[in-house]
Amino acid sequence: MALTPTDVSRIALLARLELSEAEQSAMLSQLNGFFDIVERMRAVDTTGVAPLYTPLSAVQEVALRLREDAVTEVDQRQANQLSAPAVEAGLYLVPKVIE
């Protein structure tokens, strides 16, 4: 997946970035380099390879320090929402920012 200068301009616009021509060119090169790496990784056959939860588990035995998933804090949503400018049905209301 190769990006074009138009793609970089669009991404910069969406990210509210003002890039010079030189910066756009450098960004295009960096992004295309990233996507090249992703494509090479996709090409690797990983059939039969178990996923690692940590890279260390490939070279040594790793004991996971798991704990019970238990609630340790009390629900303070209502107290936290008292200072919010707008709340509805327990949700924070924010202004629309998508054009």
What layout of secondary structure does this protein have?
Elements: H1 5-14, H2 21-42, H3 77-81, E1 87-88, E2 91-92
Antiparallel strand pairs: 1-2
Q: How would you sum up this structure, described in words?
A:
By secondary structure, the chain is mainly alpha-helical. The chain has a domain of 38 residues: Histone, subunit A. 37% of the residues lie in helices and 4% in strands. A two-stranded antiparallel sheet has the order 1-2. The longest helix has 22 residues. The chain is flat and about 50 Å long. Pfam families: GatC. It catalyses: L-glutamyl-tRNA(Gln) + L-glutamine + ATP + H2O = L-glutaminyl-tRNA(Gln) + L-glutamate + ADP + phosphate + H(+); L-aspartyl-tRNA(Asn) + L-glutamine + ATP + H2O = L-asparaginyl-tRNA(Asn) + L-glutamate + ADP + phosphate + 2 H(+). This is Aspartyl/glutamyl-tRNA(Asn/Gln) amidotransferase subunit C. Keywords: ATP-binding, Ligase, Nucleotide-binding, Protein biosynthesis.
Q: Summarize the main sheet.
A: 2 strands, antiparallel
How would you spell out the order of helices and strands?
Answer: HHHEE
Strand order of the largest sheet: 1-2
What's the CATH first level of the domain at 5-42?
Mainly Alpha
Count of helix runs: 3
User: Count of DSSP E strands?
Assistant: 2
Strand content: under 5%
Q: Quick one: overall form?
A: flat
Compute the gyration radius: what is it? 23 Å
Task: Briefly characterize the structure.
By secondary structure, the chain is mainly α.
